[in-house]
Amino acid sequence: MPAHKPPSLNKRKDSKQARAARVDLESMVTPATELTIDPPVELKDKKIACSVWVRVLTLQSETQAAKDGAPIITAFDERSLIMFCKMVEEERILETKLSKLDKAQDELHSKVNKIKPTKDNLKDYLSLWAQFNGLTSNFKGMSARLDAHRSSMHEIAKSMYLTPASRAGVSPTQKEPEAPPSEMEKVLNG
User: Fold this and answer.
1) Which pLDDT tens digit goes with each residue over 124-162?
2) Tens digit of each residue's pLDDT (9 = 90 or more) over 58-81
3) pTM above the 0.85 mark?
4) 43 close to 82: Cβ distance less than 8 angstroms
5) Would you call 61 helix, strand, or coil by DSSP?
6) Where does 29-169 have alpha helices with state H?
7) Largest Cα–Cα distance in the chain?
8) What is the 3-state secondary structure (H, E, C) of 3-38?
9) What gap in Å lies between CA 37 and CA 61, rounded to an integer?
């Protein structure tokens, strides 16, 4: 069963008693310690991660929930937010490596295409193709790693209500099924 959404994100039409009960329940599990905009020591040497920390907490402080004293991300979420910030920085590193692999692959491919294989250079020609195939394999592996990394980032973001769907508390709308064809359509389409 999914975790309850914070009352500040709940748009249901509840009675005053029900709302008060939810607020009381949430306040019982909300720590008094607040996260500060200053990044924790763990992010000290990570420039991008620090900027993500500051950005997320700055945006949170702008929400009505935070102004009402019920921030969405609390001190309990500090570890998750640290991981999320580090993952954003790691994503940028992976993107850079993937870009370099792509460039190296293109350069090697153009080199290989310029060579006319002969009896004398066949060994070098095949060696270049082996290198190209290795780069292609590395590119595919790095791309899959980046995709998995982004998927993990998205899961952490959802757990901290940083995605639109998690804040809205709804799943994406599904396409309505098509109506079965009428008798006339069946006859016409034969």
Assistant:
1) 889 999 999 999 998 999 999 999 999 999 999 998 888
2) 998 888 877 877 788 888 889 999
3) no
4) yes
5) helix
6) 47-62, 64-67, 78-114, 122-159, 164-168
7) 88
8) CCCCHHHCCCCCCHHHHHHHHHHHHHCCCCCCCCCC
9) 9
